[in-house]
Predict the structure.
Amino acid sequence: MRGFVRRALEKLSKLDTEQIEQLFQTLGEENERLAVVLDSMNDGVFVTDELHRLVLVNKAAERMVPIAPGRIIADRPVWQVIADEDIATFVRETLENDESISDQEFTLDHGGTTRILNCSVIPLVQAGHIRGNILQLVDISEKRGREARLRRAESLASLTTLAAGVAHEIKNPLGSIGIHTQLLQKLVREQSANNLETVESYLGIIEEEIERLNKIVVDFLFAVRPMDTKLEDNDLNLLVEDLLTFVQYELEQAEIELVRDLDPDLAQLHLDPKYFKQAVLNIIKNAISAMPDGGMLRVSTQQRGDQALLRISDNGIGMSDEVRDKIFEPYFTTHDFGSGIGLTLVYKVVKEHMGDISVISKEGHGTTFTITLPVPQRDTHLITWEGREER
Ligand SMILES: Nc1ncnc2c1ncn2[C@@H]1O[C@H](COP(=O)(O)OP(=O)(O)O)[C@@H](O)[C@H]1O
Ligand SMILES: [Mg+2]
């Protein structure tokens, strides 16, 4: 309660009519202001008391969810007021179990258009006691639409790069097959085909080139195939440990010292272990290639706010800026027998995990890859109604 109201109440019996009128006026204005604020908000808000009865609802909430006709009245639990079955069930179960839940998503058919609502139930705390709950609704349809458009544009752009890459890769083997076929035709025409050794070597070359073409196509399909990632709660540290055990022998053979620095307080992350391990393995394999005379591989994890960081550093040959700018492009490789597809997969996997990847590299000094992943939000904040003057 506001300090001045409390003081006025204490002295109520001593106030004259005019002063009481004044008090009501002030309270009324304040009430009005709060209602306007609530109704001007873009987020939908339902407020309930301890018995889950609806005590307040703003305009946005009424726009967002269908309200059972004639039911905006007190004395009913809030879930009887909400006419959408899924949301009503969610609200009832959450409130009855005394839980607070954030970021539960619902898809609603809203007069022919689909809306995506993000719902949170937050306890309403007043003077240290839970006095009810707030159901907050955020319409995230636009945001989702933007994200989807961006992903489509991104994947279209990468598909174009990929197609250009394939076209370029295919030109050389096709040219070579063409030349050797012509040479064979010439041999046949001149009837010097008794030179079987030459014929055989030409055919061998053609066969090799066809194999190369096949590999390009297989890699291409691999790069464009949609991923069936299943993101589930996983311990990134455990996953990294697993992988390091797997490459330990190879590191020893290459005389590479392994330093690990894993944050013990790292939250559980949404990961697909199969794909994520493959991605990290690709980065480590590149690091090993970059340290032909041995060196140091440093793997660290760290939680920073609502992000988890995974860093993989080597002190190998490093890259020039030109190379660094191309490494995620399909088929880009500086390795003699490289496919140039390793980091393309890494990029794809990180994006599937809603993460980001960045690279810092210096020629002759080494390279650091940093993968950032979102930490799933579970903890809700408590909202309090306590007036500032009362603290
Ligand atoms: N740790 C690293 N140090 C130096 N260069 C690297 C490193 N990681 C990647 N690269 C560069 O990126 C290129 C592309 O890597 P990748 O996509 O895995 O294909 P590939 O390993 O088949 O060459 C490599 O050929 C190399 O030039
Ligand atoms: Mg590689």
